[in-house]
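Backbone-to-sequence.
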């Protein structure tokens, strides 16, 4: 009997959680911040991700340089290191693996900030918006 009641309660909690998540997504709020993509910051008051002007331009430049100059991830990492550009975590050494993750992540690419699968919230302009070069 207790098992049935526990199963019923668990299902009710799941339904309420999903309903709350759907409502937050409908309002354009972040359902689960998780790891915040480089180039964005979390606005606690609005519960949304917003473009960080300090790092968003660098992200666009990284995408632009990778796409336009056909650099390998290692060569791009070497260039960022040579220019002494800090990593997303504030380190001083870019790695090809970090760039690979960034370049494959839809949220970093500016394709859209997803709150729930298929619900885009914003667009940063991606590589097309880059106006400078990393040289």
């Amino acid at each position: 009997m207790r098992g049935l009641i526990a199963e019923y309660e668990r299902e009710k909690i799941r339904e309420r959680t999903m309903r709350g998540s759907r409502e937050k997504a409908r309002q354009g709020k972040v359902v689960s911040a998780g790891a915040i993509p480089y180039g964005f910051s979390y606005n606690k008051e609005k519960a949304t991700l917003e473009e960080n002007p300090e790092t968003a331009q660098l992200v666009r430049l990284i995408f632009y340089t990778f796409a336009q100059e056909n650099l390998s991830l290692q060569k791009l990492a070497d260039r960022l290191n040579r220019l002494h550009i800090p990593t997303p975590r504030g380190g001083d050494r870019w790695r090809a693996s970090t760039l690979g993750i960034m370049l494959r992540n839809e949220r970093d690419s500016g394709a859209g900030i997803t709150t729930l699968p298929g619900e885009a919230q914003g667009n940063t302009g991606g590589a097309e918006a880059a106006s400078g070069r990393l040289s």
